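for the writeup, i need someone to sanity check this before i put it in the appendix. the sequnce is what the collaborator sent (i think, or maybe the updated version? ugh). structure was predicted straight from it, no edits. if anything looks off just tell me and ill rerun, i have time this weekend
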Amino acid sequence: MSRPSQPKLSAADHNSVSVIQSQAHPTSSSMPAAVAGLQQVPQLVPANPAAGGGKAVPPSKKKHTAEKDSDEYRQRRERNNLAVKKSRMRSKQKAMDTQQRVNELKEENERLEAKIKLLSKELSVLKDLFLEHAHNLADNVQPPSGAEGSSPAPNNSSSNGQ
């Protein structure tokens, strides 16, 4: 069984990136023909892996450091300060608006709960009136006239032409 060869590191170029190149594997019976025919592609790795690799930052995205005494720096700081102040004002206004809405909703909720209590009392009174009226009607209703001998005697409380 043949042992794979160790990759060779080339010298680091000017971007602190090393190129790993593998030695070509001699065609052996232990490697499939398809793998043996593949072309070797160099790999890029950081020259100093301990330095914390990462994505390279394009020159346009690199931080532009201006001197603290320069006009450009002062203008940027002033614009930033205004933006921060504006953002904080918007945030405070939003919080105040939200609190006002909460207070309005609480008041409306209290009004609605009071209305519910009032309507519940009214419903209870009306139910009692209805039941009393229905009970009185049931007491005053004469039974239907059926066979003459089977019906009970008529109620004497009704007016018989007196």
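The chain has a mean pLDDT of 74. The chain has two helices and three strands.
thx in advance!!
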